[in-house]
Design a protein that fits this description.
Length: 322
């Protein structure tokens, strides 16, 4: 097995681990084969579908509502994002993609699952939590502007207790799962196939857009947000910052909807779309100019390539001696 090298920052004089290009990263591993991501995608779809069906059954029994499944199938306009059973099915179903993707990667023996998170040695909790704090003011301002520009006719608390608890617990997992899927697995797969990071960013943004059933303004918003998050994952060589921004955006939306300060619907108006895009741009700029350039939060934690390829070489030697 031959290792391919394409690191963008070789080990420096202080013996810091190398940092590789995030969007072509899969090619660094000796087990890389172009077809393996297809197998991972198929297995992920099957496993996540199984999880979703189990959660759907639980949600139907929990709600006691004969129309529960039809409401879930109706999308944004019929789902009650403030009630526990609905939150379990929607947020929990998306969050389960993270487990499904990890299991699929292990079964296919694609590469270390940590490589889906960053090319700096895996997921960096410190960077993720710091980015949450850094970008929080952006989304506080966004929430205020959204309310001022489009105030509801009446303010009515919609959350059930279970709905609020599950929103707080599952929304971060749902957002991080989407980042692993779209900015991690998908962008990296296309980037590795084409050897062009920009193609990975654009195509993953298109697929990200099609996965959200909004009207034209909503679709344009999601596409541009996908581009911004894709660029940011490449710039920081990982998905901790994009995960933090995604969490803040979705948490703000769900909390405001549950408190009766806004609504979640398929028909997005132009003002809301522009506000959301502006928030993503502001948050990404903060990450690039403050977190990355000023404080250097995205330093390498280790070198997955060397560790993994060395382990695979040792296994090959063991097989050869038997």
């Amino acid at each position: 097995m031959e290792q391919q090298t394409n690191n963008i920052n070789a080990t420096d004089s202080q013996n810091q681990p190398a940092v590789y290009d995030f969007l072509t990263y899969p090619r660094q591993f000796v087990t890389y084969k172009w077809y393996k991501p297809i197998l991972v995608a198929l297995l992920t779809a099957v496993i996540s579908m199984a999880f979703s069906l189990v959660l759907l059954a639980i949600g139907r029994v929990w709600s006691g509502d004969p129309g529960f499944i039809q409401a879930v199938q109706g999308g944004y306009d019929t789902i009650n994002f403030a009630d526990g059973p609905y939150v379990l099915v929607m947020q929990g179903g998306l969050a389960s993609v993270l487990i499904a993707l990890a299991l699929a990667a292990i079964i296919v023996k694609d590469r270390p699952f940590s490589s889906y998170a960053s090319s700096r040695g895996g997921w960096n909790w410190s960077a993720f939590l710091k980015c949450l704090g850094l970008c929080l003011p952006v989304y506080v301002v966004l929430g205020i502007l959204s309310y001022v520009l489009s105030p509801p006719e009446t303010i009515q608390w919609r959350f059930t207790l279970s709905g609020l608890i599950l929103t707080l617990l599952l929304t971060p997992l749902q957002c991080v799962a989407e980042e692993f899927l779209f900015r991690g697995f998908l962008s990296q797969t296309i980037g590795a196939w084409t050897k062009k990071p920009v193609i990975g960013i654009v195509i993953s943004a298109i697929i990200f857009m099609t996965a959200h059933p909004y009207n034209i303004f909503g679709a344009v918003e999601i596409f541009f947000c996908g581009l911004i998050l894709g660029f940011l994952s490449w710039k920081t060589q990982g998905i901790e910052a994009t995960g933090a921004i995604h969490v803040l955006n979705n948490m703000m939306s769900f909390l405001m909807a549950g408190m009766g300060l806004a609504s979640i619907k398929a028909e997005v108006d132009m003002t809301s779309a522009l506000l959301d895009i502006a928030a993503y741009v502001a948050a990404a700029a903060l990450v690039i100019f403050v977190a990355d350039k000023k404080f250097g939060w995205f330093t390498a934690l280790g070198d997955d390539v060397v560790a993994y390829n060395t382990r695979m070489a040792e296994k090959q030697r063991e097989k050869a001696t038997k």
